[in-house]
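Progress narrative, work stream C.
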Amino acid sequence: MDTTQTDVSDLVAQVHAAGGAFWVRLALESRADGWFPLLAEVLVDVGLAEGRLWDAGDLVLIEKQVAPGVVEAVLLGAGFELDGRTILPVQRRLQAIREWVPSGRRYGGVRLAYPAFRFALDPEDTLDGAGQPSGLFVNRSGPSFATRVMALSAFFQHGSDAAWNQRPGSLTAWVADSRAWIRHVSIGDGRVTVDLAGDEVSGLTIQLSSGLHEESRTVEAPGAVTFTVATLDRETLVLLTDPIVRDLRSISTMGGLRSEDDTVSWHEPDVQLDALRFGGESEFVEFKSVMPTPKSKVGVLKAIPAFANGQGGTLLIGIDDDNSVVGLGDLTTDEVKDRLTRMIHDSVVPIPAFRVECLELDGLLVAIVEVGPGADKPYALSGNPPAFSPDTAPTRFLLPGRRSSPGRLHLPLSVVTACADPATSTTTDAAPPDPTPEVARLPGRSHRW
C-alpha cells in the first residue's frame, strides 16, 4: 500500500474526528521515576471487545479502553497517569508514516471491520536505557514466556513473526474509516455479489477486475451489487473507488477452499475446486492420486501436519500430479470421509483443525481435506505426541535436533536451558518432549512457520 507522511498534530485531529471507541495497548517498563512506554498502540474503532493485563513486575502489558485525553497524551508522547501508574513522556518525531489498510485484514487478533489508516511514529533518538527487553517474562496474571520479546510478540501481534521490529519508544495508531466499505463478497451461481455499507458509499464506483473480466458500476445506495461472471481468474480484485480506492477485496483461488478472509464466501465449491486443480500444487495445495492405506498413509497424509505447521492448506485426493482427475474408485462419500477422518486422528499429533468434504469432478469422486493454520505447533506424523500442552498464546521453542517453531512448550527450566537456542522455550513442570516425531514439511517447498 502507498504511504504518506502526516504531522502529529494532524494525527491527533484525525483521531478525535473519528470518534468511536478509543483503546490503547502499552508495554510499560519500570523506571526509578515512573513507567516508560517501551511500545505503544492507539486503536480507534477497530473492534476490540475486552482488555488484557499481563504483569511481570517490572514489565507490564496493558490493553484497555480509555478516555480521549489519554489517547491524546499517548499520541503526543506526554506524561500521564493510568491505573495508578505514572507514565513517563517520550520524545518522538513530529512526522508519522501513514499507510492505508483495507477492511477484512487481520491485525493483532482483530479482524478490521472497516478500512483503516495505520500511523507509525519513531522515537526522536535512541533513548537512554531503552534497549530490547531481555530475560524471562513470568506473568502474574496470564501466560508466561521464555523471553520478553516473545511476550511482546504474543501480546501485540498474537504470535506474529514480527516479534520485535520497532525501536523502543515507538508508537503505532490504527484509525478506522467507516464512511464507505465492503462488508461481504459472495461468489456462486455464476455471480459475484458485493455487499456495500457506509454513509458515503452512494455515488462511488464498484469495480470487478481480473485478467478475464472487468466491469464497473455506480453505487446507488448501501446494499448489494451483483456482477454476472462466467469464470473467475486466479486473482480477482473488487475495488470501491471515488476515484481513490476506499476499500478492496482480493478473491483468490490459490489459497484453498477455506478463505482466510471470512468476509469472502464461496457457494460453488466445485468451481473453486476446479480452479485449485488447474492452479497446480503450491505450499497451500497438494495433490494425491490415491486414498491412504495403513502402509501408504505417511506418504499421503504428510501434507496435513505440514499445512498445520504453516498457514494452512488444502489436500486434494483423487487428482494426479498432472491435474487429471483419477477419482477414488468404488468408494462412497461416507466411506471416504470416515476413513480419512479416522486416519488423521490416528496419525497426526496433535490433531489440527481440519474438515473433510467430497465432490464430483468429471463424474469422479474427489476428496478435499482443508487444514487450518495450527495453534499448537509443531504438528507431526507420529504415534507418540510430544510432551507439551496446547495454548493459544504462541512463543517459539526448539525440539532437540529440530528447527524452531511457534508454540507453547511446558518443560522444566533445566530442559529449556539445554536447548540449542535457550531463548526459545517457556517453562512449566512436565516431561521433556520425545525427539522422535518428525515435523512434517512438504518436499521442495518452504513453509513460513
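Work stream C, second folded protein:
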Amino acid sequence: MRQALREEAAEALLLARLPTPLQRAQGLPQAEGQRVMAYVGQTRSVKLIRRLLQHGIGECTNRGEYPPCRVPWFLDNGAFADWKAERPWDREAWLRDVSRARGHATPPDFAVAPDVVAGGVPSLQHSVNHLGELEGVPAYLAVQDGMSEADVAAVLDPFAGVFVGGTLEWKLATGAAWVEFAHRHNRPCHIGRVGTPARVRWAIEIGADSIDSCLPLWSLDQLEAFLRVLDHAPKQRRLFA
C-alpha cells in the first residue's frame, strides 16, 4: 500500500510539471464541451453496476467478454491482454465479438482497431489491414510509442477517432499533443489506462474526450476516488468545433 501511494505521489508530481493545456493550445480555437466520458472494465456485480450506472460510467468490454453488462460501452480488441499473457492475438474471437456487436441493441460507441502492442509505426499498417472487419462500427486508431503525428495523419482518414495507448511515460508526455492532433483533424481522442485521480484530472485538463481504466474496480476506495474526481470536474474545453 505504501509503495502504491509513493508511486501515485510521484506520478502526480510528474503531471504537475507538464505544460498546461493553455500553453499547448495557444492559437487554437476553443469551445465549451461536455464532461469527459469515462469507461471502466466489465463487472457482473449488481451493486457495482448500479453504482456505475448512477454516475454515467460506461463499460470497456474486452474481446471475449461480450455481451456488455451495461451501456454505453466500447469494444477493445484484446491485443493488450494477449500481449500481457504472452499469447498470440486471438483474431477469431475478435471477429465473433465484432459481428455480435453490430447486432447489439445498443451499438458500441466505438471499437479499438486491432493494433500491435509495442509495435511502433508498423502497428499502423496492421490497424489499416484490419479496418474492413469493423464495417458499420466506429473504429478508433491506437497510437503508441515511436509514432509521430505525420505517421498517424497519413492513415487517419478512415478512422473515427484516436485512442492513446503506449507506455505510461510516453502517454503522459505526449497525451496533450495527441488530443490537439485529434481535434485538429475533427476526431475525438480517447486515452487508455486513466484510473488514478491524478491521471483523471490530467486527462480532463488536456481536453480528452473519453478515458478508461480497470483500476476503479480493484477496490471500493479506488472507485470512490475515481468518481469524486469525475463528479466535481468542470466541463473540459474542446479544441475542435
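The chain has ten helices and ten strands. No further action is required on this item.
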